Each structure stands twice: as C-alpha cells, then as structure tokens.
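Standup notes
- DV: blocked on the single-chain target, sequence here:
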Amino acid sequence: MARRLTGGRLRRGDRMVVMAHRLMRDPNRLHSLSAFTEALGAAKSTVSEDLALLRAVFDRFELGRIETQTGAAGGVRYRPSRTTGQIIRLVETLCARLREPGRVLPGGFLHITDLISTPELAAEIGEAFATLFGDAHPDVILTMEVKGIPLALMTARAFNVPLVTIRRGGKVTEGPSVSVNYVSGSSKMVQSMTLPLRAVPQGARALFIDDFLRGGGTARGVYDLMRECGAEVAGVGVLIYTEQPADKMLDRYLALITYHGGGPAGVGVVSSNRWIRALEDGGGPEGVTPRL
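- DV (later): unblocked, structure below
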C-alpha cells in the first residue's frame, strides 16, 4: 500500500475509487483494512462502509467479487471472476470471430493470433479460466511457448501468481534445467520440452493453459515434466480443442471452444464446448468446480 494520500479529507466517492483501483491492480491478494485506513486517513468503520458499497456496485455491474475476511489476519480481496452469462457471451463472441472467412490455414489449423493477442479479449479469457479453475488454487500458471503466452499471462494475472513458460529448447542463461521427451498427439513425432529447475518449486500446484489442443501430446508431456519437478498439475485449460482425433492423450482438460474442421471458403466450423453449454443448465465441467 502506498503512503497516505494528502490534500485534505477525501470524499466517499474518492475513497472508493482509490480502493477499487488498488484492489483491481493487485487481485487475489488480501489487503488489510488498516492499510486502507492509514492511506485514506479514514476510520476503520468508515472504510468498512465504503467497502460494503463497493461490493454492491461490483455485484450489480458484474465486475468481479470483493470478499472480506474477518479476524486478526483478515482483510479484503478482489477476485476477477466472471458470471455464467459473461463466460457464455465471451465464447459466443469468439466463435463468431472464428467463423470469419479465411481463418482456416493449411493443415487444418485456425488463425487465432489476432484474437489472443488483443489485450481485452485475452484478459476476458484469462478471467474466465480463473473463474472455472477457481478451486484449483494454483501456485503457478504454465504454458508452452509461444502462442499460449498471452492467455496464460492474463490467467496468471487474475490469480496473481507467476507465469512459467516451458521451452522447446533450453537456454544457458536459465541455469540447470529438466527436460522430458513427449510424443506429439497430432504428428506422432518425438519432441522435447525444457524448464529451468528453479521455475516451479517442489510441491507446487501448476495450472497449464494453452491456446490449442489437438491430440493432447503436449499436455500429456506437461504431466511428465511436473512429475520430474516434484510438482502437481492442478488442471489443464485450453481455448480451442479439435474434434478429431477423438481419442486424446489425456482425459481431464477444459476447453472453451470445439473446432469441428474447415468449411467452404476457409470458414472454420466451431461451437462452444459441451462443458460451457452445460453451464447454462447449472452444471459444469467434469472434474472442475466453477466458481460462478
């Protein structure tokens, strides 16, 4: 928390703007009420009333959740969560964009770089993953270089945990590393992935986020890599997964969008994943407890 604000007594609206900014700038971190009272020059009871009003505003406009924790070690935190409706609308928007002509590339891949590199969309996707994996309580967010980085970074920001990028080749500047070989689920070729030993602490819970899942070989390799690091995979989330091949190399993962293949004029045939559609009926993905 920054030093005390100066310039005279602050009005309630001013205090609420400052608190909202600091909570949203540092999500999922517990801020003590005393830190706010000191910075704002207000009594604890006044700050508590301000936070109650702020919580009501955030709930009304679906801006995420402000949670308070009582007790000596208590405080307030902001969770950048998404409602069921917001997640469904986000997926529908992405599907509409993916159906634009010319997005299907040679080899059956979809051009998605412009979407996942747009900060606003990447942030929304990251917050959707943070909501759906809210009960996973990851210590780090993992991704594979390169295209999954924007989505993983925004997910890491929503959880307020470090981002760790797995490389296809090690760098001398990163020190001792651990490597594993894995079989690509699509090409069936043996490849390798590398991670610095100090990147993921032993016993850590790692959430793997990626942009595309075809056969699942990369995600399967992440499990082996975390085993070598003495860490645990808390979940696997991907933006898009392909309908074919039907048999993936892992069973438990959460995808937002299903890619059925290319249609006429290079139009991608996509739809919201069945797990996302289940949210409309009050259900959720198997093995994942959505925090909605």
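- Follow-up: The CA atoms of residues 101 and 264 lie 9 Å apart.
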